[in-house]
Amino acid sequence: MLDRYCRNVSAITQEENSRLKSFKVCVIGCGGLGGYVIEMLGRIGIGKITAVDCDVFDETNLNRQILSDTTNIGQNKALAALDRMGKVNPDIVVNGVNLRFDSTSGKQILRGHDVVVDALDNPQSKRLAGDLCEKLNIPLVHGAIAGWYGQVSTVYPGDGTMDTLCKDGFSFGIEKELGNPPFTPALMAAIQTAEVVKVLLNKEETLRSKILHVDLLTMDFDVLELKK
Amino acid sequence: MIDLKVEVRLFATFRKGREKKYFLDVPEGSKISDILDMLKINSQEVSILLLNGRDGNASRPLSNSDVLAIFPPVGGG
What we know:
heterodimer, A: eight-stranded mixed beta sheet, globular, B: mainly beta, five-stranded mixed beta sheet, 1 helix
């Protein structure tokens, strides 16, 4: 085992860490949530990461998006993920996809992955990710943030969870009025990453058929079961 | 008239100016929409509406000991 992974043990075993190298995870959106998710997936040793985003960094991203800094304003976010992971962990392969995730490109982007991470920034794209993962039979780890609030759920094909979490008729959520401070994406991305690792390694309990809602103003962490 | 005991849990911005959790006594025959009216929550702003963990619309009737969870849409990334 490489020294870089030795502190992963024994949260995961050496054998489990080796297995992570064989998995391919797609992170859709390389902004607040996605940047941190890619950072953590790369550091733990996921073998292949696809980073998807067609947007470029601007100064308003600097308060929270870990892949952004003063030297890469104007750079494509997915390609910035590729650059950063090249410095953080050359032991893995990152594919930067500079494409808009939509109904035309989506299926082709997601096909062939073991898990997809929803780090998208609007309810409609999140719902599309849910629909496509359902068709492609891929587990999806959903995350969403707004101000002091965040939510995470792990969705397996057939669960129908994204129909509940991302309703038609909302083109945006409360994040438009609440903004996005730095701590909320970092926290929720960490929870999403833990879920990805557990799904890949089939470990313990996940947030499947549940929603974790976090309120950092009141420090409430609520897990609610979702029934069909 | 028999009262129904209903637990209502509010999340995110629905907590502003309200409690996180209510234990309400409502008349038999009440619907979820009556609770929304009582708490002055605009149904158009509700995204997830769980009645005992099941999502659905606000016209569903309430039963004794029901637990209602109400969320606004959270869509940022």
